[in-house]
Design a protein that fits this description.
The complex is a heterodimer of chains A (416) and B (478). Chain A is α/β, with parallel strands linked by helices and 416 residues long. Helices cover 22% and strands 35% of the residues of chain A. Classes of the chains: A alpha/beta (416), B alpha+beta (478). Strand 11 of chain A pairs antiparallel with strand 24 of chain B.
Chain lengths: 416, 478
């Protein structure tokens, strides 16, 4: 099989990339999706709040997905569901498996990685205690409740205040469970402010900042957990233990971009994001292989996933239609004080579009601060912010006119 | 001749299989819902070469014999085994003579190929070994095995050859009767001519039901951390540490499936069910493990667990007829190297049974077994052919370990098939990967329910009350 562009993953990133690639002139665009339907994790996100930026209305996850599935259909995007990609090679041939076709290979002009992310499991968190049933990542619980219609527990403690955990605190409450508390290791929440208000405060669920789970009890099913306060080195403080009698512990302690295919392919990965390092066109270190969405870095809102994926789709289309553009000396983006990473990692001013969006996250909560961008000694931006938090993604849009002909480092920092 | 084996761990399963070679009527009683639910599921997965045990001990003899049997057995029963070799690392010049002692001890035990290497020679073979290592004992016959596959393969093959496995059947009492024994269990009474006690950490309780010469098994708790498969290649050999006055040290090893494992700690505890991990235990073992290799990436841990070694104070296996209890045979105190010794323990116990109650060989014994196909390790051509035969092998359920519906169906419908999520996991590796069953557990619950004709609410992690689902949405609303 041959095609112009293969997109691995039919979630929000893959769909938006596909539509955009078609609009940009690619004729044959094929999505390979491992599950039975397109839409990705949005299909189990039945709460609303999606699409405020994109569509100026509040949609549920499946509704947001449905709009892009419709657009993809109209744009003539091909999709194969129940199809798992096994490997990608640097010459952009993609090997996959499905019931109908067995093991098969697609030779592609360009590949877009859009595999999404996974949740950090208990083991990676090193939570001590027994190992009974009743410990789920928040997304697993979400699947049980929203897709299978079954409750994974009745009395719940949640560790981690990532958005899925906050959303599940509300969902479990609405479906008849008692959510006793949400414990968060850090002194700030990892989720969106609006979710803390709408999912915890509105239901009287306490958020215990600087707390963690120090023990899990129960041999067969969870019977209780012990939560303790942590000090500024994140070590539990003896004497601060709180015992909860519960049958369920949900974990919402971070998402990890799922880059096993990218790793095997040989893409250079960022140790900070766990996603590929990309240039201004969201192209990885392997020419013609692009990345977007949560496989690249974990986003806060799907609206931004769509936007980023559209840029990747257009860049992949340009790659197959025009070939590799002549490269100049790229600017290296540096995450300086307070900034954890930037996407992209480099910008080639000669190849960039009229504008370039740079997305990043901060490493702590900063109030009344500035987002500063320096090109060498020259300060390009000094944007006033009332508050920036690790739970929300930030972005700066740079213009071609201000980067053209420049070399060196572009430094991003939080100041004052 | 009726023989009852108590316990379906690796020891019980190995014994049951050996007995099935002869005309015995074999029943295995297991209190858990599946094979391999105790010590056999939580250990290092090492097939020790046999240099560690005291020369002349039962442990020494059965370890070396078990290690010899393991490779041919892995081919016969189709389970994962690799002879990767081991090093015992020495970190201080002044301790090097102890490597020599260990080598001599191993040679007395009949371990082949032992030699002592300098630190640089070790690092030439294993570049990640710490620069602090001054010398090491090389044991080329040391190997790694999947303890679940080994136990399940032995049990399954015993079942195919006639052994009757009764799960959820806990022995609560044993009465002597004329020429035999009556076992009281949670599922009624069983009669036997010969009883074999392979009850792991509970072997003392079983033994003490029949013998005046009391036994005490004090579980020795060992915590482990398992790391992502990306790291399995960090080291190729199993790295032990030379025991010093500061403790026995921990091992760093690739697993046979390509993860990296660090462990175990060693703490004696009274509670036979305490398989909790502790913050202190994990911190200790990671600190000790980091001594052996240069870059132990702690951020790549995917899970941790605790196993209990069935340790008896005499530091040797206790295998033989119990005092004052004719026809009651202990296979007790099977601490490390119990897994390595299991095939040899099976042979040895079968010999003891033969000596008490001889039986003819069975002519129709089938020793060979074909395991579940593993899609993850298959060539594209072989996988393509398999999918053409059965498309269920294209439906990936566990993405991290690439386990398909075909494999899960096979695990459920084989002899002694899986009935729980842990059962599916140990037979197929579904849920054993880096997301630790986050994505696949709802699907596996559904498949188990469908195939077993049950409601998803009845499906458990590992039997008992370990259910995944507590009710329907909105059920709890007033």
């Amino acid at each position: 099989m041959k095609t112009q562009i293969v997109i691995i993953g039919g979630g929000p990133a893959g769909l938006a990339a596909a539509v955009s690639a078609r609009k940009a002139g690619a004729e044959k665009v094929l999505i390979l999706e491992r599950s039975g339907e397109l839409g990705g994790i949005l299909n189990q996100c039945i709460h609303n709040g999606f699409g405020l930026h994109r569509f100026k209305e509040e949609l549920t996850g499946p509704e947001y997905a449905a709009r892009f599935i419709q657009m993809a259909k109209e744009a003539g995007v091909e999709a194969m569901t129940n199809t798992t990609v096994i490997s990608v090679s640097p010459d952009r041939s993609v090997t996959a498996m499905s019931r109908e076709k067995g093991v098969f290979t697609v030779e592609a002009g360009a590949v877009i990685l859009a595999m999404g992310c996974r949740e950090r499991p208990r083991g990676a968190l090193r939570i001590p205690g027994l190992r009974p049933a009743g410990i789920y990542s928040a997304g697993t619980a979400q699947k049980f409740v929203n897709v299978l219609g079954r409750m994974p527990g009745k009395r719940v403690v949640i560790l981690g205040s990532g958005d899925i955990g906050l959303i599940m605190a509300r969902r479990m409450t609405l479906e008849g469970a008692k959510v006793l508390a949400v414990a968060e290791l850090m002194p700030y929440s990892g989720g969106l402010k609006r979710n803390i208000v709408q999912c915890l405060d509105d239901y009287g669920i306490p958020l215990l900042l600087s707390h963690t789970v120090v023990d899990i009890r129960g041999k067969e099913r969870v019977e209780g957990v012990t939560v303790a306060r942590v000090d500024d080195k994140l070590k539990p403080i003896p004497g601060t233990e709180i015992e909860y009698d519960c049958d369920t512990l949900l974990l919402s302690c971070g998402l990890i971009p799922e880059n096993e295919l990218s790793y095997d392919l040989g893409c250079e990965l960022s140790p900070v994001t766990s996603g590929p390092r990309v240039n201004e066109r969201l192209e990885t270190s392997i020419p013609g292989v692009f990345a977007c969405g949560n496989v690249l870095h974990v986003h806060d809102l799907v609206d931004y996933v769509s936007e980023e994926a559209e840029a990747a789709g257009a860049a992949a289309a340009a790659f197959v239609l025009q070939g590799e553009l002549p490269a100049g000396e790229p600017l290296r983006l540096v995450a300086a004080s307070g900034v954890r990473y930037t996407v992209p990692s480099t910008i080639d001013p000669g190849r960039m579009g009229e504008t370039q969006t740079v997305r990043f996250r901060v490493g702590n909560v900063y109030k009344d601060c500035r987002v500063a961008v320096y090109l060498g000694e020259e300060r390009l931006r000094y944007i006033k912010k009332r508050i920036v938090t690790p739970g929300e993604m930030e972005q700066v849009i740079l213009k071609k006119s201000e980067l053209s002909g420049k070399t060196g480092e572009l430094r991003f920092a939080i100041e004052g | 001749m009726k023989v009852i084996v108590i316990g379906a761990g690796v020891t019980g399963c190995a014994i049951a299989r050996e007995l099935c070679r002869s005309q015995y009527e074999v029943t295995v009683l297991e209190k858990a819902s599946d094979l391999c639910e105790g010590t056999s599921k939580a250990n290092s997965g090492i097939v020790h070469a046999g240099f560690d045990a005291v020369p002349g001990s039962l442990m020494a003899r059965l370890n070396v014999r078990g290690s010899e049997l393991m490779e041919p057995l892995s081919r016969e029963l189709d389970f994962a085994y690799r002879r990767n070799g081991a090093f015992v690392l020495c970190f201080e010049k002044e301790n090097e003579p102890r490597l020599q002692e260990l080598k001599e001890r191993g040679e007395k035990n009949g371990v082949k190929g032992l030699r002592i290497l300098t630190g640089d020679e070790v690092r030439a073979m294993e570049p990640q070994v710490s620069d602090k290592v001054t010398a090491a004992l090389r044991a080329p016959t040391s190997g790694i095995v999947c303890p679940f596959e080994l136990t399940i393969a032995l049990g399954e093959n015993a079942a195919v050859n006639g052994a009757d496995f009764r799960f959820n059947t806990a022995v609560t009492g044993i009465r002597r009767k004329d020429n035999g024994w009556t076992l009281e269990t949670s599922k009624g009474e069983f009669e036997a001519d010969i009883v074999i006690n392979a009850a792991g950490v509970y072997a003392d309780r079983i033994h003490n039901m029949v013998s005046e010469e009391k036994m005490e098994i004090i579980p020795r708790k060992g915590e482990y951390c398992l790391m992502d498969k990306k790291l399995g290649g960090l080291v190729d050999s199993t790295l032990f540490q030379l025991p010093t006055q500061y403790g026995k040290g921990v091992l760093v090893t690739p697993t046979v499936h390509g993860n990296l494992m660090v462990g175990p700690t060693a703490v004696d505890i009274p509670d036979k069910e305490n398989t909790a991990t502790t913050a202190e235990g994990m911190a200790e073992l990671l600190q000790r493990g980091a001594k052996s290799v240069k870059n132990l990436p702690l951020n790549q841990i995917i899970t941790s667990f605790t196993g209990l070694r069935a340790h008896e104070s005499h530091d040797d296996f206790i295998i033989g007829e119990a005092a004052g209890a004719p026809g009651f045979i202990d296979a007790a105190g099977i601490a490390s190297p119990g897994l390595s010794s299991a095939p040899a323990i099976g042979e040895y116990v079968a010999e003891i049974v033969q000596s008490i109650a001889p039986a003819e060989k069975k002519e129709n014994f089938i020793g060979a077994r074909t395991g579940i196909p593993h899609v993850a390790g298959m060539s594209p051509e072989a996988l393509h052919a398999l999918i053409e035969k059965d498309p269920a092998f294209a439906n990936v359920i566990c993405r991290c370990e690439r386990v398909t519906e075909g494999e899960i169906l096979a695990a459920i419908h084989r002899p002694l098939g899986a009935t729980t999520l842990d059962g599916v996991k140990r037979r197929t590796r579904a849920g054993m990967g880096r997301c630790q069953a986050g994505f696949c557990s709802p699907s596996v619950v559904e498949i188990l329910a469908r195939e077993l004709g049950k409601d998803p609410g009845e499906i458990t992690k590992a039997g008992g009350e370990s259910r995944f689902i507590t009710g329907y949405d909105k059920e709890g609303l007033a």
